Amino acid sequence: MSTSAIDTNDAAAIQAAQEGVAVCDRSFWGRIKVSDSDRLRFLHNQSTNDIQSLKPGQGCDTVFVNSTARTIDLVTAYILEDAVLLLVSPNRREFLIQWLDRYIFFADKVQLTDVTNETATFSLIGPKSDAVLEKLGAEAIIGQPYGTHISIPTVDGGLVAVGSGLASPGYTFILPASDKEEVWSKILEAGAVLIGEQNWEMLRILQGRPEPDHELTEDYNPLEVGLWQTISFNKGCYIGQETIARLNTYKGVKQYLWGIHLSGAAEPESTITVGDEKVGKLTSYTKTFDGHFGLGYIRTKAGGVGLKVHVGGVEGEVVELPFVSHDYPE
């Protein structure tokens, strides 16, 4: 997000996401359908979460990593009756299709279909999202676990799932592009405030949702990011599993992703220092309504919450992030 002034419309949208309900059009994100009889086993072997244990109507976040457990993308997988629908980052759609295709061998019954252009995606964000679902007749999903999804009443081939894509409460819709305008209008009529791409980016950074090319790169693994909720440690073999298991077993994570309250604007890729010592790197930055905020990786030995740092010529203080966690699971 740019460091230019934030107008009152942005302020109202952010307030709606934090205290009421906002809606963001995420249709530019990628959607990949994985079908045929080996789909669950295949995805189970390609990513960090326990995909094979899920049933139709369930879903989860999972991370695609390379053979040394470096992060490619944080993906949400929705299990359908005859397929798995993956919601992937916009800048990883084509890469992931090519990546997954490389691991489909002759005997595998797996089909990959890019359905991005024929579908749309919205996210409801905020504590009053339930009220919108009730007006849409989809209240049956309220209170269900993350990733749970049901069909959207009156929309053939559409689904609504628990989870906003951020740490905030909310829901995600995936539906045919032909129904986009009608459903969008109903959501706005139900009281949701439009939140744009820049506002989403501000919330993403404030909450610590990692993004490819920033927090998710070949420099970092999912444990350093703090994506414990996406990792199954007893699911058996998958790409990158040995590295992740070893880091967990020996508590060998050497750096963590943190939030940083900043005293001024800072540039991503700036060095984070404590005194004269380099301890990390800034990965994302946003101007907020009450200051400046960044995400960055900081060496474990340097400290965590409350640590005073410098980012370039700017002072900062390390804070927790709601989207990630740095506690080893019991």
Commentary on this structure:
The structure is a single chain. With 330 residues, the chain is α+β, with helices and mostly antiparallel strands. 22% of the residues lie in helices and 31% in strands. The protein has eight helices and 17 strands. The strands form three sheets. It has a six-stranded mixed sheet. Strand 16 and strand 17 form a beta hairpin. The radius of gyration is 20 Å and the shape is globular. It starts with 7 loop residues before the first helix and ends in an 11-residue tail after the last strand.
What is the gyration radius calculated from CA atoms? 20 Å
- Tally of extended strands? 17
Write down the secondary-structure element order: HEEHEEEHEEHEEEHEHHHEEEEEE
End-to-end distance: 37 Å
**pLDDT below 50 for ≥5 consecutive residues: which ranges?**
1-6
Number of helices: 8
Helicity range of the residues?
10-25%
Shape: globular
The average pLDDT is 94
Main sheet characteristics: 6 strands, mixed
Share of residues in strands: 25-35%
Structural class by secondary-structure content: alpha+beta
Q: Widest sheet: strand order?
A: 8-9-10-7-1-11
